[in-house]
Design brief:
Layout (H helix, E strand, L loop, with lengths): L9 H7 L13 H17 L18 H7 L8 E7 L3 E6 L8 E3 L3 H14 L4 E6 L5 H13 L5 E3 L4 H9 L8
Parallel strand pairs: 1-4, 4-5
Antiparallel strand pairs: 1-2, 2-3
């Protein structure tokens, strides 16, 4: 007669500490290591490293009158476009020399500023854009102007102070200009 303890019971064997040993899984890692090295080699050979470029910086001209006259590059009036950023995100522009009748209002958007810059660059060889923010102008407006210079690919532009003469001409044109 067969006793119940003589029957093979895996649960009972586990409880007694004599579990059947399972065969281990053997994984061949050679092909994965080969692929890793192939990918590493591919990315090392196909990637171009960053090449440092120099940044051209034009330093401001000193306020000394004699030095300023010597250092400032002459620009023809027909090649100049002046943008004056005013407080409350107002923008005015004129081409050439400032006159009360030539100062016009402009918006910062794509339809205003960007269109004007692209048209000016296409029409004018050796175009120069002068950015003149009012002292009370918001810094964000100046950043917007600089972004538009890069987007429109303006080859030459400069940042300068709006002269008292320009502000006086704007006042005579009926544009409200706060005192700096």
């Amino acid at each position: 007669m067969l006793d119940i303890d003589d029957l093979p019971n895996p649960n009972r064997l586990r409880r007694l500490g004599r579990a059947k040993e399972k065969p281990g899984v053997v994984t061949d890692m050679n092909s994965m290591v080969d692929m890793a090295f192939l990918l590493l080699t591919f990315f090392m050979l196909s990637t171009t490293m960053y090449r440092p470029r120099g940044l051209e910086i034009a330093f401001p001209v000193p306020d000394d009158t004699e030095t300023r006259v010597k250092e400032v590059q002459a620009v023809k009036a027909s090649q100049a476009l002046t943008l004056i950023a005013m407080p409350e995100s107002k923008l005015y522009y004129y081409r050439g020399l400032p006159e009360a009748s030539s100062i016009k209002s402009l918006s910062y958007g794509k339809a205003g500023l960007r269109t004007l810059l692209q048209k000016f660059i296409q029409e004018t060889p050796k175009a120069v854009v002068l950015l003149k923010p009012h002292p009370d102008c918001v810094f964000e407006d100046l950043v917007t102007l600089l972004d538009e210079m890069n987007i429109s690919r303006v080859p030459r532009y400069a940042i300068d102070k709006a002269s008292e003469e320009e502000l006086q001409i704007m006042r005579s044109a009926g544009i409200p200009v706060p005192n700096p």
